[in-house]
Amino acid sequence: MLKSEVFESVKEIVELLDEKEGMDISVIDMENSEIMVDYFIIVSGNSDTHMAALRDEVVRYLKDENIPILSYDKSSGYDWMIVDAGTFIVHIFSQEGRSFYDLESLWGEQKKIENII
Asked: Which superkingdom (predicted)?
């Protein structure tokens, strides 16, 4: 996938998460980090059910677009779930989990993409 195609998929996922009322959606450009991923998409859900719905929407989108899924959390009841598409990773947090793990601060030296939608 070209970087522009990856970014377009990231934008579409952010729009889907927003439509599903995902909270505090942020995107971090990870290209200059030491890990091999282009973007982190970070979103919070307000309950286990909401987090699972956000995950399911992302997985459905990736399958519909024939974007390979390397792995994803298939169960619920966690404070942090991921959907790993290789070139980007979607992090779905409970509000408590997001505050505890604080990925935005951990990767604070990376560029945060503003106003993606």
From this structure: Bacteria
Q: How far apart are CA 106 and CA 49, in angstroms?
A: 27
d(CA 84, CA 62): 10
The domains of the chain, with CATH numbers, are 3-113 (3.30.460.10)
Query: How does pLDDT run across 64-84, given as a tens digit for each residue?
Result: 999 999 999 998 788 999 999
Q: Look at the block and give the residue holding tokens 């997985």.
A: 59
Please give the structure tokens belonging to residue 14: 């952010």
pLDDT exceeds cutoff 80 at 25: yes
Q: Is 10 left (phi over 0), alpha (psi -120 to 50) or beta?
A: alpha
